[in-house]
Design a protein that fits this description.
- The complex is a heterotrimer.
- Chain A is an alpha/beta fold.
- Chain A folds into 3 domains: about 240 residues, 3-Layer(aba) Sandwich (Rossmann fold), CATH 3.40.50.300; about 180 residues, P-loop containing nucleotide triphosphate hydrolases (Rossmann fold, 3-Layer(aba) Sandwich); about 70 residues, no CATH class.
- Chain A is globular.
- Chain B has a two-stranded antiparallel sheet.
- In chain B, a hairpin with a 4-residue loop joins strand 1 and strand 2.
- Chain B is globular and about 65 Å long.
- At the A-B interface, helix 1, helix 10, helix 11, strand 20 and helix 14 of A face helix 1, helix 10, helix 11 and helix 17 of B.
């Protein structure tokens, strides 16, 4: 008889017209790290929402320590010691770390807060599990990695011993990921049981004991990680074999398309520049990647380059034309395509349909409007064509509201739009963030195809695998400066890591 | 079963049902108030309010006359609602519609009485005045990032006092009656042309304001859904950042939206006061039309056509109050009921939200993820 | 959209059927039924509307007659006409309307409803359009407010006050008559006392028939600068004067239309704030006229505009304009003095001008201010 701390047996959860979970069984042993693997839309989040009391399943039972339990809301789940780190953190930005941790479980005596006790407990926990946080920092001021540690501390503070991590690495830097893996192992060693939702195979191989795989709402199987391979896991996940390396031929760079000279961008948070004297160029037919740990000025630089933010000094030249002071519209219509970092904030109008989103920068062109009146038929046709070509899948085709689509398909829609527009330069910022392997493979292929068709590509990525596999040249950004340029074929992950952490820098001559 | 679900899931149907539920809920709550005040006659009271002008059913002329009156009085309310929903679609909460309405009133009556203009130019003056007032709010918002609600409220009061000063003078206001001169006696040409007057029991206030209101609603519907301008506005309203990313000129659009919204609100005033049905009296508070328009816009599900129905409904109940038997009920009860219905209008969106969650037992924001999953798996 | 439309159609059908079932119950019997329509105020305005309402109600109760009042939805002719039609549809055949605002309504509905008797208080011939002839189912009443105002002013100055004020509502003829009468009374009393050079009257209109902060601010200034008594003349405007007076020791207010002593004291929570009230006999008029209707003597009034004032020198309480001697807080000006004054006015020894176009010529200080609103 195995010692299962949580068992979800034959769970079936239906939504109108769709079965999100179809007879799924998941058994979590005490003290193990159990990965839950599946593509976007496989039903992982639904299953976890059932466990966390957000949904009530139509069929199936949940057992805690062998006894059947009813979980009707998150409070029930918390009472059973189940805690969850959501993909999008549930933190109050303007509260301190400590306040966020105790929020909802405020220690008090006669109704008065007794924060001193709470502080001690938090510090003890952070020491014990090596979760470094500053309890007095405001959440809005700390890094994403630290915010995640706050989320973990929240669970530990509530004495949860079943911890659910919902795609925790999607937002982290390589170093932070490594750290998280370490923390997870520590937690398991201390007797906590961990459910780890992900679609990153490397992480599973590194940290998980067992792995359950879901595909299209169905349970595929559970394997011991020690006895399996990445290839086996991925084929179980997508139902076919997946290639990890990106197929590409040697780049044949041609004329210079983008030239950036001494660009500085003011910081919104402090007085100093967040981007300092950045200079480089991108030529047609090559992929140049800006690598770096999140928060080192990449977002601000791209903001300045595309016009979303103002630059304080410097010069930007596109195909020989100075576009430093040009409007976004001008850049959009003169050869700049931009796959933005935040697809929800910038990339899409989520309440618009797919077809409306497809013409976001082009609605005024004669192809889509006449005398200020939209040509609905042309929009539909265009959107259908792009969706087909780029395999954008959605419930109602072009009429689907963007919000209703999965992240992967939203991203594909953006990529389709940006690639189809007339452009000489494609700026792609974290184009595969939060996507599953199938989608990543596809997007990488498209980007290489773009390059081979003669476009200049500026890629910004935090994923080292992506950086190494995709780029022809790598620029490393550290604290707002380009600290090194390396050739992916000649460098190693270790060297890249040194640049990224500021330990090494080239004395680059200002271009 | 499956078909029914899909009907319920259609946003249009949902809005319509939510609005009807809110209206019914308001009536039921109103009934409870009547019940609390006078249990024996509550049913009779409710019946009187709902029966409304059908009271005159034995004289179709009188009945049609008061049907017409209800239409006439719905016009400014509907147009204010149109103004508000138009701005709302672009993500702007034009609480300043009340002030834009007030300056429209000022412009139309001043040009009509003091300057003796023809109605057409009086309407244009009102539109221009409202547009100017909207421009102020839009300019402050786009250039100095002053919240349009704050600017709107301030401008409302400025509009009120300005109107009191301009219309309070001897040229426009009958000093012995303390109200503006009767258009019929001072400038007949300023009265809006009649429309189907004979059909509506010779109601002299039945003017082209009614077809114009419908045309304006259709026009807004058209602009919002079929034009690039509407496309830009809605994109800005839904997601400012994405609109900026797409290269849309947010500053220009903010100003333009509020100018148009203000123009409609200003026009609303002219469409009412230029029928001659009411005269302006010095007021110590901003006319409520602009504020009630907010509620009507929401009750109408933020749909230009829905606003027509909602506006008529609210006015129908408002006017229904006068048919209450004052022996049993204070006539203010009807105002109270309308206030409650207006209050409930705010729940239309909430109800819609609830309907969206039908089938899901828990309503938690974290559910959106799974929501996306579910859709994709289709 | 089609579904929406069809739903609407169904609803409309339902409504009409519902209405069809509810057969009209207005039985056209000949019994007298009395209705009242309020003007811009409500029946709780402690003034004009309330007096009319209470008089109608008391009369109906005493004579066992059905009575109801109607409140127009807005302050407009259209809304007043709607209320009238509503009352008629409900079977009321005597309609009492208080105030000059009703003149256009009467012009619109009187001839079309010959069976409905309309009693209009405070509506004068001048309120109708030129050349309008009152039909026989209407009778209008006006009052010699200038005499009531005169008596109030005379009494106040005789009482020893020297710094007075007049706060009118809207400058309509009735209010102007009160005001100019008040000024004349103050003047005559001051001349009689020989202190005309010391007596001052401030004169202003609020521009509305209810009090507000702006009006109170003006009153605060007046009382603060030494004004002792203000004649608050116009609907509910007295609240602003009374609030301001309360804050100053010894300051007084003079009420209007009805005996407002109790009302003012009660509202402000102070005793003796109201010096006296310049009354006109609204209640008496309502009573007498309704009695005439019931007794079948309507022909005495049919189509007339009656100007009511003094009818008796011996018994001042019979007059349509008077001061309430029992509730006033006068010390020096006695009831005998008052009776004396009434007699002189009745006999014609004293003449009060009812001219509303020209300010009265006086020897006392008389200063007119711009309207507040």
């Amino acid at each position: 008889m195995e010692d299962y701390v949580i068992e979800m047996l034959h769970i079936t959860k239906e939504f109108p017209g769709i079965i999100a979970n179809d007879d799924i069984t998941l058994q979590l042993k005490r003290g193990e790290i159990h990965a839950l693997l599946g593509e976007n839309g496989a039903g992982k989040s639904t299953l976890m929402s059932v466990l966390f009391g957000l949904y009530t399943p139509e069929k199936g039972v949940i057992k805690k320590d062998g006894k059947e339990v009813k979980i009707n809301n998150p409070n029930d789940a918390t009472a059973l010691g189940i805690g969850m780190v959501h993909q999008h953190f549930m933190l109050v930005d303007i509260f301190s770390v400590l306040d966020n941790i105790i929020l909802g479980a405020e220690p008090n005596k006669f109704g008065f807060l007794t924060k001193a006790d709470a502080r001690k407990k938090v510090l003890d926990l952070s020491e014990k599990y090596n979760l470094k946080v500053d309890p007095d920092a405001m959440v809005e001021d700390i890094t994403v990695g630290m915010q995640q540690r706050v989320e973990i501390l929240k669970m530990l503070y509530r004495d949860n011993d079943i911890l659910i991590f919902d795609e925790p690495t999607a937002v982290l830097t390589p170093q932070e990921i490594e750290e998280l893996m370490h923390i997870m192992k520590e937690l398991a060693k201390e007797g906590k049981s961990i459910l780890f939702i992900t679609h990153k195979l490397n992480e599973i191989m590194e940290v998980a004991d067992r792995c359950s795989i879901l595909r299209k709402g169905k349970y595929i199987g559970t394997v011991d990680v020690a006895n399996t391979t990445k290839e086996e896991l991925s084929s179980m996940m997508v139902g076919r074999d997946v290639k990890f390396a990106v197929d590409k031929v040697e780049a044949k760079p041609k004329e210079e398309v983008l030239k950036v000279e001494n660009v500085c961008v003011k910081s919104k948070l402090h007085k100093n520049d967040s981007v300092h004297n950045v200079s480089f160029n991108v030529r047609a037919g090559e992929i140049v990647c800006i690598a770096g740990i999140d928060g080192n000025g990449q977002t601000e630089f791209i903001g300045g380059l595309t016009g979303l933010d103002d630059i304080s000094s410097g010069k930007i030249t596109l195909c020989g034309e100075d576009i430093t002071k040009k409007s976004i519209r001008y850049k959009n219509t003169h050869g700049m395509s931009h796959v933005p970092e935040d697809r929800h904030k910038h990339g899409l109008v989520l309440d618009y349909t797919v077809e409306e989103n497809m013409i976001l920068q082009r609605y005024f062109e004669p192809e889509f409007s006449k005398h200020g009146i939209l040509k609905k038929d042309a929009m539909r046709e265009y959107s259908d064509r792009l969706s087909e070509a780029f395999d954008v899948r959605s419930g109602k085709g072009s009429k689907s509201i963007a919000r209703s689509m999965s992240g992967g398909n939203q991203q594909k829609a953006i990529i389709a739009r940006e690639m189809d527009r007339d452009h000489k330069l494609l700026i792609a910022v974290q184009p595969t963030r939060g996507l599953d392997v199938g989608a990543i493979e596809y997007i990488h292929k498209e980007i290489v195809k773009e390059r081979d068709n003669g476009a200049a590509i500026l890629l910004v990525s935090l994923e080292l695998d992506e950086v190494m596999n995709l780029s022809d040249r790598i620029l490393v950004m550290y604290e707002g400066e380009i600290v090194g340029e390396v050739d992916p074929k000649k460098t190693t992950l270790q060297e890249l890591g040194l640049y990224m952490s500021g330990a090494k820098r080239d004395d680059r001559k200002e271009a | 079963m499956k078909e029914k679900t899909s009907f319920m899931k259609r946003p249009g149907a949902q809005t319509f049902i939510a609005s009807v539920i809110c209206a019914l809920l308001g009536i039921v709550l109103g009934f409870f108030i009547l019940l609390a005040m006078n249990p024996a006659h509550a049913f009779e009271g409710m019946y009187d309010i709902l029966k409304n002008f059908f009271k005159y059913s034995n004289s179709s002329t009188t009945m049609m006359y008061y049907f017409g009156s209800t239409l006439v009085k719905s016009v400014p309310l509907i147009l204010c609602a149109e103004a508000i929903l138009f701005a709302y679609k672009a993500g702007l909460f034009n609480i300043g519609a009340a002030g834009q309405y007030t300056v429209g009133l000022m412009a139309s009556l001043y040009t009509a009485i003091a300057l003796g203009w023809n109605w057409f130019f009086c309407v244009l003056a009102a539109i221009a005045a409202g547009a100017l007032w909207g421009f102020f709010a839009g300019f402050l918002k786009s250039k100095f990032n002053v919240n349009e609600v704050i600017a709107g409220i301030m401008l409302n009061w400025i509009a009120l006092y300005l109107t009191n000063i301009v219309l309070g003078g001897e040229k426009v206001m009958n000093q012995s009656k303390s109200e503006t001169y009767n258009l019929l006696s001072v400038n007949k040409g300023a009265l809006l042309p009649e429309f189907l007057k004979e059909v509506f029991g010779n109601n002299q206030y039945m003017t082209i304001a009614i077809p114009i209101t419908i045309i304006v609603a259709l026009l807004i519907q058209f602009v919002l859904n079929k034009t690039t301008f509407g496309y830009e506005l809605k994109a800005t309203g839904h997601n400012k950042d994405a609109a900026k990313y797409a290269g849309m000129n947010a500053q220009r659009n903010i100003i333009l939206t509020l100018v148009i919204s203000g123009a409609i609100a200003g026009m609303a005033a002219s469409m009412y006061y230029l029928t001659g049905i009411e005269h302006y009296k010095i007021a110590s508070s901003v006319p409520g039309m602009g504020f009630n328009g907010i509620a009507v816009a929401f009750l109408g599900g933020l749909n230009p056509i829905g606003a027509i129905l909602a506006g008529f409904f609210v006015e129908y109940i408002t006017l229904g109050g006068q048919y209450l038997n004052t022996t049993y009920f204070n006539p203010q009860v009807a105002d109270l009921m309308v206030a409650i219905i207006i209050y409930l209008c705010g729940f239309v969106l909430f109800l819609k939200h609830v309907m969206n969650k039908v089938g899901k037992t828990k309503v938690v924001s974290a559910a959106t993820n799974a929501n996306a999953e579910e859709k994709e798996a289709k | 959209m089609k579904k929406v439309l069809s739903l609407l159609m169904v609803m409309a059908l339902a409504v009409t059927t519902l209405v069809g079932c509810g057969s009209s119950k207005s039985a056209s019997d000949d019994a007298t039924k009395i209705a009242m329509i309020t003007d811009s105020g409500d029946i709780t305005d402690m003034s004009f509307n309330q007096t009319t309402y209470e008089a109608c109600k008391a009369f109906s109760k005493a004579n066992d007659i059905e009575f109801n009042y109607y409140k127009p939805t807005e302050d407009s002719d259209e809304a007043r006409i709607a209320s009238f039609n509503n009352a008629v549809a409900d079977g009321y055949n005597v309609v009492v309307v208080p105030g000059y605002l009703f003149a256009p309504m009467i012009e619109d509905v009187a001839e079309a409803n010959p069976d409905v008797t309309i009693i209009a208080l405070d509506v004068s011939a001048g309120d109708f359009s030129d050349g309008y002839e009152l039909p026989s189912n209407v009778c209008c009443f006006t009052y010699q407010e200038e005499i009531a105002g005169y008596m109030a002013g005379y009494a106040a100055v005789s009482e020893g006050y020297t710094q007075l004020g007049f706060l009118g509502g809207v400058a309509v003829p009735a209010v102007i008559r009160y005001g100019y009468g008040f000024v004349q009374g103050c003047n005559d009393a001051a001349v009689a006392l020989g202190n005309a050079d010391q007596v001052n009257v401030n004169y202003i209109y609020g521009g509305q028939f209810y009090g507000d902060d702006a009006i109170k601010a003006v009153m605060d200034t007046w009382y603060g600068n030494g004004t002792q008594v203000v004649f608050a003349c116009g609907g509910g405007i007295w609240t602003s004067a009374a609030e301001a007076a309360k804050a100053v020791d010894g300051a007084k207010v003079i009420g209007v239309d009805v005996d407002q002593a109790a009302t003012i004291d009660e509202t402000e929570g102070t005793d003796g704030l109201c010096l006296t009230s310049a009354m006109k006999g609204l209640a008496a008029t309502v009573d007498t006229t309704l009695q005439a209707v019931v007794d079948g003597k309507w022909s005495d009034y049919a189509g007339k505009v009656e100007n009511l004032g003094l009818v008796s020198a011996d018994d001042p309480t019979q007059n349509y304009v008077q001061l309430p001697t029992e509730t006033w807080s006068m010390q020096k000006f006695t009831v005998e003095d008052y009776n004396d004054l009434v007699a002189k006015l009745y006999n014609g020894d004293i003449k009060v001008s009812s001219d509303t176009d020209n300010e009265p010529k006086v020897e006392i200080g008389f200063k007119t201010f711009d309207n507040i609103h």
